[in-house]
Amino acid sequence: MLAGCTPWPAEAAARYRAAGYWTGENFDAFLRDRTRRFATRTAVVEGERRWTYAELDERVSRLAAGLLRLGIAPGDRVVVQLPNIPEVLEVAFALFRIGALPVYALPAHRHGEIGHLCAATAAAALVIPDVHAGFDHRAMAARVRAQGDGPAHVLVAGDSGGEEGFTALADLRDAPLTHPAPGAAADPDDVAFFQLSGGTTGLPKLIPRTHDDYLYSVRASAEICRLSPETVYLAALPMTHNFPMSSPGFLGVLHAGGTVVLAPDPSPDTCLALIETERVTMTAVVPPVALLWLDAVDGGSQAGRDLTSLEVLQVGGAKFGEQAARRVRPTLGCALQQVFGMAEGLVNYTRLDDDEETVVTTQGRPISPDDEIRVLDDADRPVAPGEPGHLLTRGPYTIRGYYNAPEHNATAFTADGFYRTGDVVRLLPGGHLVVEGRAKDQINRGGEKIAAEEVENHILAHPDVHDAAVVAVPDAFLGERTCAYVIPRGTPPGRSQLLRFLRERGLAAYKIPDRVEFVERFPATGVGKTSRRELRQAITAELRRTAAP
Ligand code: J2J
């Protein structure tokens, strides 16, 4: 196992193998096998571009050869920040082919987050688009380099700009790598890539996922979602996020021999048009996007669309309100599937044969019979059946530790390896979970996760700030927005000046507080403690009280 990662105990690993969950397939073998079986079928579609499985595999081999030539070696980490373009598949599988490890960033990340990821993984390379959604990722990469976070190579999907150390992917595609490639030997029970945690701490944590554990979740998800070669999946959310990657996501679709259609953005105008023209059968969105789609079809701009191909709409990443959930079938004419998952592992789905009440009122049940679920009170004792409590979990695809984070792991995991999800749930008799809330210091802004402490630390770096607490405020559309309570040091900085300061520090736009309130002091915490965690709780309680009718 890669240094800095926590393996499953040998006994558990043996059990997961014996049960047939961990099959010993690695990501490179996965692509080669599906290419053999589905060679001439369409793997991925983006605008005018359509690649068959054979074309994807050929590109992967060429890029893999080019990466080796450039000096990317087996075991190297490579930060991948790409929007929804077919190169996501090409780059990820090329890295797998040479045994290098993708570190998946989001397109919204900026030099602060990307710099951290590059530094924390000692990345050999960073992969970016040139300009995306009006933002110049090359300039950002140059800045990451200038701040001393590496990496040696910047690979650009598009125009490299010709800067020293910047290479266009197009210039890397060599003669195909001769088989077998070094990556073919990648140990299936070792780490394949890193996902990013939604986080509760000052710096985002890295989630190491193995070939064995992740591919089990992909195969099992594909089965639960009944994927087949006829599946046409629309990737509407950013593809490097865990949900559209693996639940069942584009990997589930490749597993089944289906087609992945890439949407440049999740707007109803873009996506509902693609569903009609590409005859999409399934897609996955976060709750605010589902609301926009429902409204666009319900007498809105997309009312005339032919959506008859759509069989399943998955909604997850944040709690989907029951009222909206009830609108999905009548409005879109498809089944709803609620998905409650996390990049750390555990994923729950409502099943396609669950009754409608279960589908609209629960967040599903775990993928695996060997997902162990505990619902505990504040003192780690089991709550009475059906009562809300903290969700802890352990199983064949849930990590046992974050990367290089022994101190954090000591509290995020129990001694016997259960992950403390920070979610508050009720467990129903049939095994379905209802998400009731959250105990972690995280804001869920319509599915985008914000660690309060991370944003507070950036605010505290401002010279005119004495203290800061970032909390969630309820929002009808996004579920939650962020509010930063700030105690100034003397004259408060202007709001817009403070927000500019945060952007300048390289924070993703979704982490920039929606509201800033300057206050003289924070509410007392009852026990007189001054931890920011208690302050956040006190302010949240105060907000609830004042918001009450
Ligand atoms: C309430 N809260 C939810 C839901 C996630 C599939 C789907 C989602 C994610 C994801 C994922 C929720 N209702 N339906 O990785 O594979 C909140 C919980 C959870 C956290 C995880 C997947 N679905 N959540 O959202 O790592 O608080 O993964 O612990 O981004 O999102 O966030 P993330």
Automatic annotation (TrEMBL):
GO terms for biological process: siderophore biosynthetic process. CDD domains: 23DHB-AMP_lg. Keywords: Ligase. Signal peptide: none annotated. Pfam families: AMP-binding (PF00501), AMP-binding_C (PF13193). Residues 32-403 form the AMP-dependent synthetase/ligase domain. One of its GO terms (molecular function) is 2,3-dihydroxybenzoate--[aryl-carrier protein] ligase. Residues 454-529 form the AMP-binding enzyme C-terminal domain. Gene3D superfamilies: 3.30.300.30, 3.40.50.980, Luciferase, Domain 3 (2.30.38.10). Pathway: Siderophore biosynthesis. Belongs to the ATP-dependent AMP-binding enzyme family. PANTHER family: LONG-CHAIN-FATTY-ACID--COA LIGASE, NONRIBOSOMAL PEPTIDE SYNTHASE PES1 (EUROFUNG)-RELATED. This is 2,3-dihydroxybenzoate-AMP ligase. It comes from Marinactinospora thermotolerans DSM 45154.
